[in-house]
Design brief:
One of its GO terms (biological process) is endomembrane system organization. It is a single chain. With about 210 residues, the chain is mostly helical. It is built from 7 helices and 3 strands; from the N terminus they run ααααβββααα. Helix content is about 60%, strand content about 10%.
């Protein structure tokens, strides 16, 4: 008599485990979905952050700062280089691209009247109104500029050149905090631009749609 009761208890316990497994599976699926959304937005940072500018900055900074051992001439030279890099950072943020019905890709600069194409001024996108300059583009440009200045200011050679007494903990923590905040803002407020260097194959997805 005792054996059937034990079996019954075991069976009921097994049903509870199934329910818990189903709930755990649902939570895991929801978590994966949220992570995919975050990663999808983060993957677009290459158009909002100055990737090309950062690359050139990383290459030329050791040369212009003499590996951190700066003279007055190096100070001025590096200041000019940071200014030019900041301007290029903002400029690249305002670039966009479109594809014609024939499949040819054109790049241009977003303006208040539409897109000004570089390689063919006579070509227009299928829907010109979608490419007009908006206040959101200015917001993204400012975020991109802050991201670049944070990167530039925390560069090892720049720190040695301008403020060698700055604690190493500051140069390590500040870029992480600023990068995290900007990344969150980029995910929450994604850009509509597909500028120079941005892969056109990522034109549409579940999170970002023009």
């Amino acid at each position: 008599m005792d054996q059937p009761e034990s079996c019954k208890v075991l069976i009921e316990g097994h049903d509870d485990d199934d329910n818990e497994d189903d709930n755990a599976g649902a939570d895991e699926s929801h978590l994966i979905h949220m992570l995919n959304m975050i990663l999808s937005g983060t993957a677009r940072l290459n158009i909002l952050l100055p990737t090309a500018t950062i690359l050139s900055f990383t290459i030329f900074t050791p040369i212009l700062t003499n590996d951190g051992h700066c003279t007055n001439f190096n100070h001025w030279l590096m200041a000019v280089f940071i200014t030019v890099s900041s301007i290029s950072c903002i400029f690249l943020t305002f670039t966009d691209s479109f594809q014609t019905y024939s499949g040819k890709l054109y790049y241009g600069l977003a303006t208040f009247t539409g897109i000004w194409t570089f390689n063919s001024r006579r070509k227009k996108p299928p829907e010109p109104s979608l490419y007009k300059l908006r206040w959101g583009d200015v917001f993204h440009a400012l975020l991109s500029l802050v991201a670049f200045l944070t990167f530039a200011g925390s560069h090892f050679d720049v720190v040695l050149c301008y403020y060698p007494a700055l604690p190493r903990k500051v140069t390590n923590i500040v870029p992480l905090v600023v990068g995290f905040v900007i990344s969150v803002l980029f995910v929450v407020f994604p850009s509509r631009r597909r500028g120079i260097g941005y892969p056109f194959m990522l034109k549409r997805d579940a999170v970002y749609i023009r």
